[in-house]
Amino acid sequence: MAERKRRKLKLLAETINLDEKKATEEEESLKLQTWADLPVELLELILCHLTLEDNVRASAVCRRWHKVAVAVRVVNQSPWLMYFPKYGSLYEFYDPAERKTYSLELPELQGSRACYTKDGWLLLYRPRNHGVFFFNPFNRHMIKLPRFELTYQMVAFSDAPTSDLCVVFTIKHISPTVVAISTCRPGDSEWTTVNHQNRLPFVSSIWNKMVFCSGMFYCLSLTGWLGVYDPLLRAWSVLHVPPPRCPENFFAKNWWKGKFMAEHDGDILVIYTCNTETPIIFKLDHSEMVWEEMQTLNGVTLFASFLSSHSRTELPGAMRNIVYFSKVRFFGKRCISYSVDDHRYYPRKECHDWGEQDPFENIWIEPPRDASLN
Q1: CA distance 196 to 205
Q2: Which residue in 30, 78, 90, 193 has the most C-beta neighbors within 10 A?
Q3: Do residues 224 and 273 both lie within one domain?
Q4: Of 211, 278, 289, 286, nearest to 243 (Cα)?
Q5: Are 256 and 234 found together in one domain?
């Protein structure tokens, strides 16, 4: 009995020693691991919640952390979709990143319609008295311009109205070979209008197909020709660039209503889409003076609407390489979008007949920096 008891005690002691050895080895192994050994999924989860400043610091830890930090880094905010009510003065703002809707009472805007947006500013027009003015809905600042009759011609501005460089530009074709160009700057007492001759036919497009890029206003005509206006030289010309080539079925489905124009980092981009057809994105090749079809957006996100379209980089990863359109589905919870990488609409099989949408219903606008109206 005593011998059996000694054997049991010896076996128990060996088991305890073995467990202690394993625990020591595991402890030593854990000591050898570093933060750089975190699984990618966990690392992404941590880094995506950091501020931009802390994200940049974390990216300096090692190559692995740098790759993940850059992938989840959010530098820019996406624009919000601002809705203009048919009645009343309650305006809604939809944030596609957070899928949230905010509301603001803006009685200053009653009786007006949006024309263009840039840098958080709206350019608006009151048809009743031909009033034209800038308005920032987030700080309620207003800057009035001289009265001017804006019917349905294309109109845009170059910079925020608080900048000395700001110029408002509008163009209307008088005939296929003559256009009337009017310009105005904040502080001017009147608009300046000059008629220009065209060597190539230029008929104003439906709604705004216009961007300001590298000091020039670029305008896309109804049939796809590109006009350029230099506000410093007050010079107008129609470029010898053949219109983008589109599938024949585009021409049979109101294709001209589903054209959008944006600028990104010096590039002129045009989006063609209609009904169930896959959107086609073209970029102007300045060296060859041709439109080339883009197979990828290289991380850029586009926000398209009738009145003004925008581009963004370094948005959350799930929003990159996507075109967001100015239509929200599913009880206001999701924008119609098209993924260039996946070659499909989201939600699946979603599309939109742009001929049915009121062009003055909404417009993309840059949100306040704190991304909140509360």
Answers
A1: 17
A2: 78
A3: no
A4: 289
A5: no
Burial 282-302 (b: 16+ CB within 10 A, else e): bbbeeeeeebeebeebeebbb
Secondary element (H or E) of residue 324 = strand 322-329
| Residues 246, 255 contacting (CB under 8 angstroms) | yes
Query: Could you tell me the two tokens for 265?
Result: 């980092």
Q: What is the CATH number of the domain that holds 228?
A: 2.40.128
Q: What is the pLDDT of residues 348-369, one digit of tens each?
A: 766 666 666 778 889 999 998 7
- What domain range is 131 assigned to? 111-241
Residue 183 inside a domain? The answer is: yes
Which letter does DSSP use for residue 161 in this model? T
Please tell me whether the overall predicted TM-score, pTM, comes out greater than 0.90 for this model: no
- Residue 122 and residue 199 in one domain: yes
Distance, in Å, from the CA atom of 280 to the CA atom of 270, rounded to the nearest integer, reads: 8
Q: Which of 241, 263, 290 is the last residue in one of the domains?
A: 241
Q: Is residue 254 part of a domain?
A: yes
Q: In terms of domains, do 125 and 220 share one?
A: yes
pLDDT tens, residue by residue, 134-184: 999 999 999 999 999 987 778 999 999 999 999 999 999 898 899 999 999
State how far the Cα of 218 lies from the Cα of 234, in Å rounded to an integer.
Answer: 13
Radius of gyration of the chain measured on its C-alpha atoms: 28
* Rounded Cα gap, residues 207 and 304, in angstroms: 12
Collapsing DSSP states into helix, strand and coil, what is residue 44?
A: helix
226 and 248 both lie in a single domain: no
In whole angstroms, what is the distance from residue 336 CA to residue 329 CA?
7
**Residue after which a domain boundary falls, among 206, 241, 276:** 241
Q: How many structural domains does the chain have?
A: 3
| Residues contacting residue 87 through CB under 8 Å, at least 6 positions apart | none
Q: At what angle do helices 40-47 and 63-72 cross, to 10 degrees?
A: 50
Residues 236 and 248 in one domain: no
Whole-number Å distance between alpha carbons of 263 and 270? 9
Helices (H), 178-257: 248-251
